[in-house]
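$ run holo --ligand "adenosine-5'-triphosphate" --emit tokens
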Amino acid sequence: METKDLLVEVKNLKTYFYLDEGTVRAVDGAEFDIRRGETLGVVGESGCGKSVTARSILNIVAKPGKTIDGQILYHRRTNDHTDILDLTQLPPQSDQMRAIRGAEIAMVFQEPMTSLSPVHTIGNQIMEAIILHQRTSQEEARELVIEMLDLVGMPLPERTIDQYAHELSGGMRQRAMIAMALSCHPSLLIADEPTTALDVTTEAQILKLMRSLQEELGMAIMYITHNLGVIAQMTENVVVMYMGKVVESAAVDTVFYNPQHPYTRALLQSIPRLGQTTRDRKRLASIRGMVPDPYALPRGCHFHPRCDRMMPGICDRQDPQMVEVEPGHKVRCLLYNGK
Ligand SMILES: Nc1ncnc2c1ncn2[C@@H]1O[C@H](COP(=O)(O)OP(=O)(O)OP(=O)(O)O)[C@@H](O)[C@H]1O
Ligand SMILES: [Mg+2]
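-- output --
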């Protein structure tokens, strides 16, 4: 099997929020790799640290949050060689971080209105990014924006370019945000639930578009979603997160056909798949119990109170370590520790 070159290595990443009520360990030792040109899916229930992981990579975690440990090694390709930069060591507002953010690593957020400015036209916002990162003239940038809007399937790009976000429909806003993210040809696009606000038809169009742009531009995508249908359709490798940790990682087919972590198995039974109607969704099983209170995490494996295969005296006492159960397939579960 061909192995693609590494693009980003996330190692033992810890990003905590320090609040009056206590410390939220939003990301607590996450580990995974993103390879050049691949699509990595990230799944897990609400609150398990997917968005905070994405923000940590871009170095935009807002106070009172802070990345306190670990490394994010970015293999940065320049003309003739590759440098390895640890993004956690770069000050968020440094020139180097700003040159990477938005241009080499771009993000499409869960909610488009949070990343589009209400007081600038769509065109001006995207042009600003292009002029900043590619040093083109105003006219050239405008031409590029119209091309990009056309590429993302925006209707009437010559007119839309001069409109404001509030004048656009949800699908058009999402397209504008994707156009902005892609305008500098990033080597990594982080897509955080990019289609949650959309109807199924528009969602399918956007997914198709992202796939074709990926082929054309050779970029990697880190795709965060609750929708396993989308994971199956879009990704090559998958990481499953629970309470700030990666609990299973493998090729997408392995995750679907040979999941090993009880949490992954439960997720597979509970998450809506593409093509299911809302009525089917209501009848789906949900995972027993609730995501724990982040201020009072259970001892041992954080999943043990909800786990079908919990081993008393073991799972409530020991911290599971990541084990490679077969090449390329890792599981953090005490069922496999010591084997
Ligand atoms: N700005 C913040 N201040 C305090 N806590 C935060 C902040 N942002 C995130 N958190 C906490 O960090 C944890 C992880 O949140 P995160 O947004 O990464 O979850 P998620 O996996 O993206 O969930 P969802 O699927 O709902 O988007 C949660 O407990 C959340 O409450
Ligand atoms: Mg999120």
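-- notes --
Residues 200-217 form the longest helix (18 residues).
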